[in-house]
Design brief:
The chain is mainly beta. Helices cover about 15% and strands about 40% of the residues. It has one domain. It has two helices and 13 strands; from the N terminus they run αβββββαββββββββ. Strands 5, 6, 8, 9, 12 and 13 form a six-stranded mixed sheet that branches. Strands 4-3-7-11-10 form a five-stranded antiparallel sheet, with no helix packed on it.
Length: about 170
């Protein structure tokens, strides 16, 4: 009988303490959607490709925003691209950048953002602007692995910015 009373007191105590917490459960944080609404349609950042002939490399979407005056800080591309195989090219090869989307675009403007490309040293310590004309860029002439950030910006019907990262391996083969 005494054991039943002790057991009952323990259960009542546990119920009181679990039911009387002052902390409220935090609502789950919403992950921002990679889309924006234009003309009542959702728009996602387009895919970017870097091509050399029949070969292409993964260009990873790092960060983006669909608003005016976006202030974005890219992640170091060597960390973002960990485990991603870089595009193998020869010194001085010409590479083509392509912009595409799997969605039906609300505006052809999605295909023609203002584009800036920078070469980033490992760990993001140094950035060098890349000469980029008519969607073509030239690979470095020295062998090695190179990391890049691509910043795309829309300032028309679409307003926003997206940052991508890719890597190439320059080797004479």
């Amino acid at each position: 009988m005494r054991l039943k009373i002790v057991f009952l007191l323990i259960i009542i105590t546990l119920l009181v303490f679990t039911g009387c917490t002052k902390e409220e459960a935090e609502p789950a944080k919403e992950t921002p959607s990679p889309t924006t609404e234009v003309k009542s349609q959702q728009v996602s950042p387009p895919g970017i490709g870097i091509n050399k002939g029949d070969s292409t490399t993964a260009v990873i979407l790092d960060t983006h925003c669909w608003e005016e005056n976006c202030s974005l800080t890219p992640d170091p591309p060597d960390e973002l691209l960990l485990g991603v195989t870089p595009l193998h090219v020869k010194p001085g090869d010409e590479l083509e950048l392509s912009v595409s989307t799997s969605e039906t675009p609300v505006s052809d403007e999605i295909y023609s953002p203002a584009i800036n490309i920078v070469q980033v040293s490992p760990r993001g310590e140094k950035e060098t602007d890349v000469n980029f004309e008519d969607r073509y860029l030239t690979a470095p002439t020295e062998e090695g692995k190179y990391y890049y950030n691509i910043t795309t910006e829309w300032n028309g019907e679409l307003i926003g910015k997206a940052i991508y990262a890719f890597a190439i391996l320059v080797r004479e083969e």
